[in-house]
Amino acid sequence: MKRALLLASVIAALLVAGAIAIVPRLLVDSGGAPAIGGPFTLVDHTGRTVTEADYRGRLMLIFFGYTFCPDVCPTTLGTVAQAWEALTPEERPQLVPIFVTIDPARDTPPRMAEYVANFFPALVGLTGSPEQVAAIARAYRVYVRKGEGSATDYSMDHSAILYLMDREGRFAGHFDPNATAPQIVAAIRRQLAGKP
Questions:
Q1: What is the total count of domains within the chain?
Q2: Whole-angstrom Cα distance, residue 189 to residue 24?
Q3: Which member of 114, 120, 128, 162 lies 3.0 to 4.6 Å from 132 by CB, making a disulfide possible if both were Cys?
């Protein structure tokens, strides 16, 4: 039994690592830019319906995960919080940090509100119907697979990429789970200065 569990864990880790490795080589649009992102309609942690247009004119820093995630989600969001703190009061209004759930069955708006409050006030939590969440995950090329367990106690395998989108909602860059707050801040500042 322990051997089977170890094998399953190794396979899951390899799948996630493979998903992370292919992100830079994803399909590109006709202009040569990665075809990542696009329109979405979701519900924020306050219960308000939002679309990508609500964030137009500001950079978006987007991470996909779930509130029951034991490791990479809180670690990455902690790094995002450090990056947020390093930005100046003039820079912060030009960026929207967003956490999109991949587990809409459990991550309701109230649950998302409780979770994002653990990090920093500006963090936006987004959820929606299973179809809405699946659509945005596809648009951002996010690997998602529900693990085994009961109806309410299960894990989710998912890629752990942090996306930076420009003021028009176009892909501007990504960070792997090892990215540091200074690296993220530097990329944000390049975008704010109009330097890709």
A1: 1
A2: 21
A3: 128
Single-letter residue type at 30 = S
Please report which helix (H) or strand (E) contains residue 72, including its range. Answer: helix 72-86
User: How many of the other CB atoms lie within 10 Å of CB of 183?
Assistant: 13
Rg value, the chain, Cα:
16
The CATH number of whichever domain residue 131 belongs to comes to 3.40.30.10
- Provide the 8-state DSSP code for 28: B
Q: Are 127 and 104 in contact (CB under 8 A)?
A: yes
Q: Which domain holds residue 9?
A: 2-192
Tokens of 57: 């004119």
User: Could you tell me if 93 and 14 are in contact, meaning their C-beta atoms sit under 8 angstroms apart?
Assistant: no
**Helix intervals (H) in the chain:** 2-22, 72-86, 109-116, 130-139, 181-192
